[in-house]
Write a structure and sequence with these properties.
- The chain is mostly helical.
- It contains ten helices and no strands.
Length: 262
């Protein structure tokens, strides 16, 4: 054997050894078996992908309950909210919904149509009464956390720290709402439109710290109704201020024109 033939033979042996190691440690004579295994895996991969796709399609067709199309995420969130809302005890649910009525009934655009139900003095000062009622409700929302902290049965440093945080937070809504009682009804209504959603977001962040699971589900529609009522009052005052500014501008223009004519 010549030197070049020996080099080629050594190269062939090295390539066979490398291909055997790449196939899981098989030696050179098992090279055909390795090719068969690769072919089998290549053929099985599409079959596995097709089976997974078929299973996914069947699951989507069956839906979460096995009897229809899968519901969209929004529908699932609505269903979860309704289950939590329905789990609320009857008394808190009735009292909460009844507590949202004054926010709507005392909005001036609504109160002017309730002269047969509300006293005349209340209708005339509906916006002021509504803002004062909102201040008491915001203070109540903070007091909920004071009660939760007092009723907590947990002990230890972590529980004490969480209770202290709840005590501190519980007084913040009342401190924020107190100056609103001294404002004009229009400005107070604007501030209340911010305080009510802010309280909801803060409570949502603390929803797992002692609050019952149904509490935030009940709070959601009540916050929407209360904020909507305050928004009606705020919008009425904003429009009134804009009309007043336009009237002043018109009177100023007419006065300036008369002076120029003289």
């Amino acid at each position: 054997m010549t030197r070049s033939s020996a080099v080629r033979a050594c190269g062939a042996l090295a390539r066979q050894a490398w291909s055997g190691a790449a196939c899981g440690g098989a030696q050179a004579p098992r090279q055909p078996g390795c090719g068969w295994a690769r072919g089998f895996a290549a053929g099985a991969a599409p079959r596995r992908a097709g089976a997974a796709a078929a299973a996914a399609a069947a699951a989507a067709a069956a839906g979460p309950e096995g009897g229809g199309a899968a519901s969209p995420p929004a529908a699932g969130a609505l269903a979860r909210w309704w289950r939590a809302f329905s789990a609320a005890p009857a008394v808190p649910r009735v009292l909460g919904l009844a507590g949202a009525v004054p926010f709507i009934a005392l909005a001036p655009p609504v109160a002017k149509h309730l002269t047969g139900v509300l006293p005349g003095a209340v209708v005339d000062a509906a916006d002021q009464v509504q803002v004062a009622y909102g201040v008491t409700i915001v203070s109540f929302l903070g007091a909920v956390h004071w009660g939760v902290a007092m009723a907590s049965p947990l002990g230890g440093p972590l529980a004490a720290r969480l209770a202290n945080e709840a005590f501190i937070y519980s007084v913040l809504p009342s401190l924020a709402a107190w100056p609103v009682a001294l404002m004009e009804p229009g400005a107070g209504a604007v501030v209340m439109c911010c305080l009510l959603p802010a309280c909801f977001l803060a409570d949502h962040a603390r929803r797992n710290l002692g609050l019952p699971a149904w509490y935030m589900a009940l709070r959601a529609p009540l916050t929407v109704l209360a904020t909507f009522g305050m928004l009606l009052t705020a919008t009425r005052h904003v429009h009134a201020e804009l009309d007043r500014a336009k009237a002043l501008a018109a009177s100023g223009d007419s006065g300036g024109g008369g002076g120029g004519a003289r």
